[in-house]
Design a protein that fits this description.
Helices cover 65% and strands 4% of the residues of chain A. Chain A is mainly alpha-helical and 158 residues long. A two-stranded antiparallel ribbon of chain A has the order 1-2. Chain A is flat and about 55 Å long. The model of chain A has no long low-confidence stretch (mean pLDDT 83). Classes of the chains: A mainly alpha (158), B mainly alpha (499).
Chain lengths: 158, 499
């Protein structure tokens, strides 16, 4: 409770003091049905919502400090490492998706992540990435005509 | 009447039926795999519906929703791991039945009672929703603002334990809805100069990120545990042991009916959900039973009560969505967005402008229930295998679907970045014990809430007193405050009782 209160307090305060005042500062007053409307009106709801978050987080912090501090289960180092590696693989996949293309990056991503999850059988490591990539490509690109990133293989499709 | 007949013939079109079948099969499959939630499945299916007409879209989404809740009972009965939180009470008697070698009997009873519960809630949906919408038509901006405020409060209060976390989640959802162009003056807010963010965070990437990506990260936290996941099933599928007799059905009928009504009532209140209904239905059946001692040891009536209650919620959650434009839970919040994509605005006017869509929803719900029975009966021998699909194979595939689903919205990689960012936020919130459903509902209701609020202020010369002067708006505000106060008192009593 205390930790989530502090995190949300810092977030809401940053938004309240630094981000909301900048809304509409580079935009002129809006003309609506002939009347001039101040763009400052657009700040009302963000102020209201961040105000709500701020108030709740203050109550959470106070309650958290009043309560006897429970012993928190500290996260296992291996768990943190696993999540970090997983996120890294996912981020790299998303970053290379457009330049490299779906057909090359997806099997590479699936192969890497299956290895990460400990699959060592060659059959699974080859069949799953190839089959899944092929099935998704067929479903989206061919059946539903949704363009997926082609990347370096663009020349093959034109 | 003509519209109804037209919609019946439309719903019975083979293309529609095909998508209902796909939806029910997917729902059963996903519901049966612990860790894959119905919310995640519906969220992943929404990008596909963008390219489908209304009928097949509804078929796919409602098929997943209805049968996904039933699917949760499969792994609850077979492996003592509820596929969905809504099936948690089913494990209490389902798994003991499975250990006694009567898994087939338990699965058939779960199927029959899920069907019965679902049909009871559809009857109530058809009868109540239209009348409720007539009342909602009397609402002006002030009443609408107060209603949305009440809905957000009650969802936050009921979903969060402690309630502050639920309210914080609803507040965060409202804040996320501010990203993009202001709805009335088109002033950029929190876009940091990005043109892609002018349209806001995007409903599909946000919900996929919140539910699917955060779940993926949570599951991957312990990859060793995920890899070693194995079914503990020891049951047999002996035919004689697993036949469900008419006598057994008759002896559970009272519980099924009671749970169906209870589930419908709970489903029609925003924010409570199928998990609460499941336990309440089970508890009531046990209380009313002549042999309460058999509950927990493998009572078929226990399985029937829990399953009738949770499936009754699925139809009933559409009552506030259709009549008041308030999604009752995370899945209906996603359905709300999916209907908007199809050009159908829920709320009281749907009964004036889109009666065809309303009829289509009713018919699709009935068909989805029937298809669920047919699909489940034909898949029953495969259920054990479904529950055993390794999660370390499923989740990477789900991730690729998430990426493609988000990308397909605008053919823009920025939506994939949004999905991952929101997914990370969802993961952090889950680790802090903050519920995600109020956040999604806050995000979805944020824009209509802001519009109604600012319209009210503009019409009243910026006076907040208008909310107290209008009787309906005042009633909703009292209900909102009352729900917070009552929940605090109840929580304090519970705490005292435990101490």
């Amino acid at each position: 409770m205390r930790r989530s209160g502090v995190i949300s307090f810092v977030f809401a305060l940053t938004v309240f003091l630094l981000l909301i005042p900048r809304i509409g500062e580079d935009q002129p007053a809006v003309k609506l049905l002939g009347d001039d409307y101040n763009t400052g009106e657009a700040k009302l709801f963000p102020y209201l919502t961040s105000g709500i978050i701020l108030s709740i987080s203050v109550i959470m912090m106070i309650l958290g400090f009043l309560k006897k501090r429970e012993r928190r289960r500290t996260a296992d180092k291996r768990q943190i490492r696993d999540v970090a590696i997983l996120l890294l693989i996912c981020i790299v996949y998303i970053l290379i998706l457009t330049p490299v293309g779906f057909l090359l990056s997806t099997p590479a991503f699936l192969l890497t992540i299956l290895l990460f999850f400990g699959i060592r059988k060659a059959k699974g490591l080859i069949l799953i990435p190839v089959f899944v990539t092929g099935a998704i490509f067929l479903c989206f690109e061919v059946l539903m005509s949704i363009e997926l990133p082609k990347g370096v293989l663009e020349w093959m499709f034109y | 009447m003509d519209v109804l007949l037209e919609q019946i013939s439309m719903a019975l079109d083979w293309y529609n039926l095909l998508f209902i079948l796909i939806g029910t099969l997917l729902g059963i499959l996903i519901g049966a795999i612990p860790g894959l939630t119905v919310i995640m499945a519906v969220a992943l299916a929404v990008p596909l519906t963008m390219y489908l007409p209304l009928g097949p879209s509804l078929g796919l989404l409602l098929g997943i929703y209805i049968s996904g809740i039933y699917g949760g009972s499969i792994s609850a009965i077979l492996v003592n791991a509820p596929g969905t939180p809504a099936a948690a009470a089913t494990t209490l008697d389902g798994y003991p039945l499975s250990k006694q070698g009567r898994a087939g009997k338990a699965l058939k009873m779960a199927l029959f009672s899920s069907f019965a519960g679902g049909m009871i809630s559809i009857v109530f949906l058809v009868v109540i929703a239209r009348y409720l919408s007539k009342v909602a038509l009397l609402f002006g901006p002030a009443e609408k603002t107060a209603l949305l405020f009440f809905a957000l409060t009650i969802i936050g209060v009921l979903a969060g334990k402690p309630i502050l976390k639920g309210l914080l989640a609803a507040g965060l959802g409202l804040f996320l809805s501010c990203v993009g162009s202001d709805p009335l003056l088109a002033v950029s807010r929190f876009t940091f100069g990005s043109l892609e963010l002018e349209e806001g965070l995007g409903f599909i990437p946000t919900m996929i990120g919140l539910f699917a990506i955060s779940e993926f990260i949570v599951q991957a936290e312990n990859r060793l545990k995920m890899r070693n996941y194995k079914s503990e099933i020891s049951s047999s599928f002996n035919r004689a042991e697993n036949r469900l007799s008419g006598k057994e059905i008759r002896s559970s009928l009272k519980s099924i009916f009671r749970s169906g009504i209870l589930g419908t009532f709970i489903g029609s209140l925003p924010g409570i959900g199928a998990t609460v209904a499941c336990f309440l239905g089970y508890g009531e059946a046990r209380r009313a039973s002549k042999e309460p001692e058999k509950f927990g040891e493998g009572a078929l009536e226990g399985v029937a009560a829990a399953e009738a209650a949770n499936n009754a919620v699925s139809g009933a959650t559409l009552i506030p969505l259709l009549s008041l434009n308030v999604p009752g839970d995370a899945v209906t919040a996603i359905l709300y967005g999916a209907l908007l994509i199809q050009g159908v605005q829920t709320g009281p006017l749907i009964f004036e402008h889109h009666m065809d869509a309303v009829y289509l929803i009713y018919i699709t719900l009935i068909l989805a229930n029937i298809f669920m029975v047919a699909a489940a009966l034909s898949l029953m021998p495969l259920f054990r295998r479904i529950a055993d699909i390794p999660r370390h194979v499923i989740f990477p595939i789900v991730f690729v679907f998430c990426v493609v689903g988000s990308y397909a919205v605008r053919n823009n990689i920025v939506d994939v970045y949004i999905m991952l960012g929101v997914g990370l936020l969802g993961y952090i919130l889950r680790k802090q014990g903050i519920p995600l459903a109020p956040l999604l509902i806050g995000f979805i209701l944020g824009t209509p809430f802001e519009e109604a609020f600012r319209q009210t202020l503009a019409g009243s010369g910026n006076s907040l007193l208008v909310f107290v002067r209008e009787p309906i708006s005042l009633a909703f505000l009292i209900l909102a405050v009352g729900s917070i106060v009552l929940t605090i008192i109840r929580n304090m009593r519970e705490k005292k009782a435990i101490e």
